[in-house]
Amino acid sequence: MKFMPQMETPETSSHSRYPVLDGVRGTAILYVTFSHLSNKLSLFFSGQGQYGVWLFFVLSGFLLSLYFFRSTAKMFCPWEWLNYAFRRIVRIYPLYTLSILLCILFGYWSHRAFWPVFLLRTPAVWAVFVEFKFYLVLPFVILLIGGLGMWRRWAPFVIFCFYLCLHYSLFPTATLRPGYDAFRIGNALVGEYAPLFVMGALTAWVYAQTGHWRPRLSGHAGVGAVVAVLFLLPVVCSATVLNALFGLHVAADYYHMWWVPWGLVFSVFLYGVMMSDGVVSRFLSSPFMRFFGFVSFSTYLFQDFWIDFLIRERAYLPEKTLRAVLTLGLIYATSALSFVLLERPLSRLSLLAWRR
Length: 356
What we know:
Elements: H1 19-41, H2 49-69, H3 72-75, H4 78-105, H5 114-118, H6 126-151, H7 155-170, H8 188-210, H9 214-217, H10 221-236, H11 239-246, H12 259-275, H13 279-284, H14 287-294, H15 296-312, H16 320-347, H17 351-355
């Protein structure tokens, strides 16, 4: 049996598969994994994982919203929303529960931590904490954008600008904290990062309205060039590159409060890769990059087990590069196994299929 599946999902799915977006998800998890590994081994990519998490949030808002924006009937169908809730739970909780149990089993957390973490009362896995709680809000965002868009095409943009002003008044830049500082922030973390999901939803609405332009734009060199620049921009703006090229002394975390500007960048990037057949879009659609996208959730949950394990075993593997390569191999072998045994079977479950 081939590992690389044909991932065209049925209409009962929460979204149809776009190969290029699997590659975008793969890019996001590579940022996170290399950053976590570099933080522990003092390698060149330290501090860059925030780009990946922000891209994940924008992508989630985009994919989940696009399914509804493609059909007004789905947006106002109760069964579709029940299916949305069911699939979000099935998508997150089996693997999330397994990761909690492993943390307790291997002594990372006390057994008393199970229920607070499981019920998302504490942001121990902060990206899951933020994303799952925003799943509860996203239907209202979709209905608002979709409803306003049916009234006036410009209305969603006006409301979004108003929302950004409100967000900055509630969460001034001086008071912001990055997600990895989650225990000091708690539920306010969801409000801080909400603009990223909203940007993804708004981008999905724009794509649903303008997707018919794709045949004219897909081969345009200018569109491909913009996508390439945006794809490389996080790397170019990393502290490692800035310090090496310009002799600066920029801290690795210098950009960690800038998720709203970067969310706008990633929104334009998502729209661009959906409209383009350029080099970057073809690269992201390749089986190589799609593999990382398929296993991204398993990778996010389980990567730190292997990273911490090999840090503890550094007496047997003193050479950092060797440890990094071995760690990556173990991470992605475990993630592939998790995908085949758990993620892929669970992704096929749908209330709409049972209803039929």
